[in-house]
Amino acid sequence: MKRTGLYDLHVELGAKMVPFAGYEMPVQYPLGVMKEHLWTREHAGLFDVSHMGQVILRPKSGDVADAARALETLVPVDVLGLAHGRQRYAFFTNEQGGILDDLMIVKLNDDHALFLVVNAACKDADIAHLRAHLSDTCEIEVLTDRALIALQGPKAELALARIYPRVADMRFMDHAWFDGDQVWVSRSGYSGEDGFEISVPAAGADAFVRQLLAMEEVEPIGLGARDSLRLEAGLCLYGSDLDETTTPVAADLKWAIQKSRRTGDRAGGFPGADIILNEFENGAATKRVGLRPEGRAPMRAHTPLFDAAEGGNQIGEVTSGAFGPSIQAPMSMGYIPSELAAEGTTVWGEVRGKRLPAKVTALPFRPSNYKR
Amino acid sequence: MKYTEEHEWLRVEGDLVVVGITEHATEQLGDIVFVELPEEGTEVAKDDEVVVIESVKAASDILAPLDGEIVEVNDVLSDNPALVNEDPLNDGWFFKMKIEDLSALDDYMDEAEYKDHIG
């Protein structure tokens, strides 16, 4: 089992450590999942996400446009049009139009390279995928000597600006360097709150995190609350809500496929393009939807979904489900046939042998607070 | 007070047994967000699943510790499940049951034995 550079600090803080994607990670601290979640919505929560993969894609030609063009052969996203110092959500697709992983792409400011952040559980496969397809045009450098910290919540700017005042000028999905080129900050996250993701050299990570935790606004937050925060924000978890069998259109991620990859001279050219672009025009058979179960009982992942209170047919399955501490109600996401996906439609989830009604609901469950 | 290996506590009140879960159990479960209680008047057999609790982490079942009849349930928990975390040994009780023979309780652990059990 691997450990991040902050392992000793987690243990010192009283975290409960659990295996996650091959790492021993903090699932909660003494505050507990519910209070950690609410703290992040009110103040600022600090998350160690150093288990995620950080990769630099450096074009052999020296022209970052060549790296962007190369990466566009693996993702249905406009990388070429990304401005310097900006970040964009993307996913690697397969020939069937399914999703191999979702990721963030940054066009680094003042450098001729792209910076990718990928999921921990997928990073080895992602790196192999990049090497297999992009080695002719790019150097693929895996950054194993950097920690990744997320600072999320309405007080995140106040806290981080004490160290780096210029972060206050950043807006959602901006990316900038601090301390020369040592510390990389993006204004983004996975909680539905304003906040930052900060890549720091591993050697200084412990001291940097202690400096933030010493601030009264900042508490350490574990993976438990990270999951309930992202679910309230309607954000997908790869491996649960997205996988090799879910297409971007079924996953309701059409917004992430820019027009330049659908029409014109850069249309298509990524794995599964025919399937994905056809679905983009004509719809997919299934759709990821938000579900609000009646009552208080959570409908967790793998709860089967039916089209009737009794009898009827199984129409799908819950892919993520929990109790939302901020909305004080259960919430789920799942896939159902597109013709049943209209808001307000009732479906039934079978929980402990009983079919309980749940209404199809717009996502997110709670409005997000990004600094646009 | 008696304790089961499933971290329930059993307290005799007159001819009834009150059942709840221990502080140790609530610490393991985390924040409780949903409690489903049985109907009053239900006849249950030992080890029947009578209460469902859902925490932020997972669902778990509370088993009937003895044969008997559920005579009263703590309805407050349906709207305020967090009471189980806040006061597991008192206000966070689940149900009261009537049993034939209170001596059946003797098979369960006393407080010292339970403390040993959870280490």
Automatic annotation (TrEMBL), chain B:
HAMAP family: GcvH. The glycine cleavage system catalyzes the degradation of glycine. The H protein shuttles the methylamine group of glycine from the P protein to the T protein. It comes from Marivivens niveibacter. InterPro entries: 2-oxoA_DH_lipoyl-BS (IPR003016), Biotin_lipoyl (IPR000089), GCV_H (IPR002930), GCV_H/Fam206 (IPR033753), GCV_H_sub (IPR017453), Single_hybrid_motif (IPR011053). Coiled coil: none annotated. Binds 1 lipoyl cofactor covalently. Its cofactor is (R)-lipoate. GO terms for cellular component: cytosol; glycine cleavage complex. The glycine cleavage system is composed of four proteins: P, T, L and H. This is Glycine cleavage system H protein. It comes from the Bacteria. Keywords: Lipoyl.
